[in-house]
Structure formats: C-alpha cells, structure tokens
Specification:
This protein is α+β, with helices and mostly antiparallel strands and about 80 residues long. The protein has 1 helix and 5 strands.
C-alpha cells in the first residue's frame, strides 16, 4: 500500500492506495469542519471514484506511521 497526502483549498486529503492508484481508504481534514474517514459509519460513505495519478506532483508520499496518528486524532475529534 502507498500512503499519500494532498493539500487542496485548505483541505488535507490522506489516501491509502495500491500501486495502481486505486484508493481503499481516505481521510479528509478541514479547518473548522468535521473531519471524515471513508470507513466510519457516522458519515455517508465517501471514496474517490477514480484512480489517483501517482505521478501527480501535488500528491506527497507519507510514511505509514503517520496514518494511525491522524486516524486517532480524527476519531477523538468525532466523539
């Protein structure tokens, strides 16, 4: 699996994808708004409907150890 971060219009998008760019999980962090995780039932399911272009310079590879930290922070914020 590949872990990627995309900054877009004040949003931080985290993606878990395979080496073909197919996304299996994503998280959205947005200042002042509720964060969302694609596999949390509290929100409507949301997941990108297209493969990521892994050569996109805006997609930043991140370490797998960063994902649990962000996930835990988001889950805590949802409570």
């Amino acid at each position: 699996m590949i872990y990627l971060l995309l900054y877009s219009d004040g949003q931080k998008w985290y993606f878990e994808a395979d080496d073909e760019g197919v996304v299996y999980r994503q998280m959205l962090l947005e200042e002042g708004k509720a964060s969302r995780i694609s596999n949390v039932k509290k929100y409507d399911f949301f997941l990108t409907d297209h493969e990521l272009h892994l050569d996109d310079p805006e997609l930043q590879p991140i370490s797998t150890c960063d994902i649990p930290i962000y996930t835990m922070k988001m889950l805590e914020a949802m409570q």
